[in-house]
Amino acid sequence: MPNTICAQDSSEAEAAELLQKQLIDSQTAMSLAEIFKALSDPTRLRLISLLTENEVCVHTLELVMGMTQSAVSHQLRYLRQLGIVRYRKEGRHVYYALDDEHVRMLFEQGLLHAKHR
Amino acid sequence: MPNTICAQDSSEAEAAELLQKQLIDSQTAMSLAEIFKALSDPTRLRLISLLTENEVCVHTLELVMGMTQSAVSHQLRYLRQLGIVRYRKEGRHVYYALDDEHVRMLFEQGLLHAKHR
DNA sequence: CTAACATATGAACATGTATTCATGGATAGA
DNA sequence: TCTATCCATGAATACATGTTCATATGTTAG
Lengths: 117, 117
What we know:
The structure is a homodimer.
Chain A: E1 3-5, H1 12-22, H2 26-38, H3 42-51, E2 54-57, H4 58-65, H5 69-81, E3 85-90, E4 93-98, H6 101-115
Antiparallel strand pairs in A: 2-4, 3-4
The structure holds a DNA duplex.
């Protein structure tokens, strides 16, 4: 049972003060949004599901996902630039794997949520 | 230390079979993406931070956030339609509050992640 | 060296999205 | 009743985003 806050009822300053403590600042909000945005696309989530327990080369991802090489590669770059996946070159293959335990936890916790609906 | 999977190295069918078990289906991916997308915008995250422990009317949210009433109301509708927040009308005021424990957990866990960078 | 393969990337395109603007409905107060 | 306030919403706009297309780089095989 949460507090009810309305600037009209009590003194406006008092209500604002209460809420300002809860409000996250813009920089934190943007940083947080960036993390969740990485997880907000079905293609990236499917890629992450493949990379959570395996190190997989791009071509194989392309086959299993049923997508073009270019689309896969673009999304991998996205995840790479956020530090969510790492890559390892070996000959002409490049192997990708998940490299962020926080993201792994968010992914798994979200999966529980999705099934729990 | 994850397995390395490449369709060229072992038999292609074997590698694909391994990965198909990991791959989440499209429907699950879309449902999951929907949840994370709700958390992928700084404005919505700031709203959620205000509504996690309080029930707040729209006008007060407008004041504390420093945004237009319309922008706040649009985002509240977005969260409402996903069942993330509930609302309660009382006279000419409408009070909103967070109404999804899973989202609350994802938000708080993400916040730890954001600060841990 | 040459051809085939694996991957990366810039540009173009179509689509999605957050905010603003304008407006309407509902309620309280004078 | 009349006005001010609170909230919702459709349309428009500017911007972000995911995929495709074309192409480039680097590596292996013949």
